[in-house]
Amino acid sequence: MYRLAYTSAVSRPLTKADLKQILSVSVSRNKAEKLTGALCFSRDIFVQVLEGRRHRLNSAFRRIARDPRHEDVELIGLEPIEERIFGNWSMAFVDDSEEVRGIILKHCGLDRLVVDSLKLADVTALVREMLGKP
Ligand SMILES: Cc1cc2nc3c(=O)[nH]c(=O)nc-3n(C[C@H](O)[C@H](O)[C@H](O)COP(=O)(O)O)c2cc1C
User: Fold this and answer.
1) Ligand 1, CB cutoff 6 Å, lining residues
2) What is the span of the domain harbouring residue 99?
3) Whole-angstrom Cα distance, residue 105 to residue 57?
4) What is the pLDDT of residues 7-37, one digit of tens each?
5) Best exposed site among 24, 46, 70, 118 by fewest CB in 10 Å?
6) Where residue 90 sits, what CATH number does that domain have?
7) How many structural domains is the chain composed of?
């Protein structure tokens, strides 16, 4: 089992309907691929964490990276894990809020999701906190 995280930026403004569509496709596809994870969206930046079999993660990442709805897709890390953290979610979603921006500020030092200098473990901790997990 492996965990992967990446960050990206929207390539054009996305509506609630666009996000809903991305989520519903992700949930059903991830279920089929036995992938779990979370997608966070704040100030036009995405951070996504995905867990599952390595070859499935790789092909999902290739597919996602080609998606024209976002750009500047940057891999943060891919590491082996003992067990899933996001096991209950085919794709949990964290939307922007004041509370989320507070958590981002604490982890990134900015109120934007700038995670370039973070390691996979730091990003995982950030996403966990956003989901309200201890
Ligand atoms: C920010 C973002 C996150 C996405 N997350 C996933 C995901 O977790 N799983 C997934 O299958 N597709 C995800 N997608 C959608 C894929 O890019 C793609 O549209 C979808 O998998 C269908 O691919 P296909 O048309 O090649 O079958 C995401 C797209 C975006 C823009």
Assistant:
1) 22, 25-26, 29-30, 39, 46, 48, 50, 60, 63-64, 67, 69-70, 91
2) 2-130
3) 29
4) 999 999 999 999 999 999 999 999 999 999 9
5) 24
6) 3.30.70.100
7) 1
